[in-house]
Amino acid sequence: MKKLFLIAFSSGLLFSQAAFAADMPAKAKTCVGCHGVDGNSVVPNFPKLAGQHAQYLEKALKDFRDGFRKDATMQAFAKNLSDKEIKELADYYASQKAK
User: Fold this and answer.
1) Which of 1, 31, 39, 44 could, after both became Cys, cross-link 49 (CB 3.0–4.6 A)?
2) How many other CB atoms sit within 10 Å of the CB of residue 53?
3) Host H or E run for residue 63
4) Regarding the domain with residue range 2-95, which homologous superfamily does it belong to in the CATH classification?
């Protein structure tokens, strides 16, 4: 019963976050799990992206994609991003208010 409740509660959170972020770029939906809907991660291991400079975020993502910056998880997410998608992600998170 407890597991069923946790699954239902978690699903509700994911769906409500997805509805909240309707203006979010499509590729950002894969970022939500670690960085939060608006880039304000609540987990200390995952950096907050909200309010960061767009140029910094763009460079960081390109560096992950191109192998200059090492992190297995981020490299896996960034490896198939186009320059346009990276710019959209950077602009989106830069426009979010840091909390």
Assistant:
1) 39
2) 11
3) helix 54-66
4) Cytochrome c-like domain (1.10.760.10)
- Interval 13-38: pLDDT, tens: 555 555 456 689 999 999 999 999 99
Listed residue (39, 46, 45, 43) closest to 98, CA to CA: 39
- Residue 23 confidence (pLDDT): 86
- Structural tokens at position 59: 């460079």
User: pLDDT exceeding 70 applies to what percent of the chain?
Assistant: 78
Residue of 31, 67, 66 whose CA lies nearest to 52: 31
**Closest to 38 in 3D by CA, of 57, 51, 26, 27:** 51
Q: If you search the block for the tokens 């960034």, which residue do you land on?
A: 78
Whether residue 54 is predicted with pLDDT greater than 80 in this model: the reply is yes
